[in-house]
Amino acid sequence: MNLSDIRKRIDEVDDQLAKLFCERMHLVTLIAIAKWQQGLPLNDNLREQEICERAARQSGIEFAPYVRRFFSALFGISKDYQILRAPTEKSSDKG
User: Fold this and answer.
1) Residue 62 included in any domain
2) CB contact at 8 A, 63 and 26
3) Total of domains in the chain
4) Model pTM above 0.85
């Protein structure tokens, strides 16, 4: 493969990642809503650790530390978005 072919393939992978990221963000919004309705905290460190470790095992020794970092960053982004979407006292009074 030449440089152009590799870049084209990376673009294809990036397109898939973006689509999957948006799907995941939609799902974490649904999770956040369920947690708010049940009075549960957004943070679930045990669940995050389980996800990181499962993904690291699937990625192999070479990529495992990077996969853990990737998922840690993803969790941070997800939490930021969940907090942004959190119902406020004022908005819950309107309903």
Assistant:
1) yes
2) no
3) 1
4) no
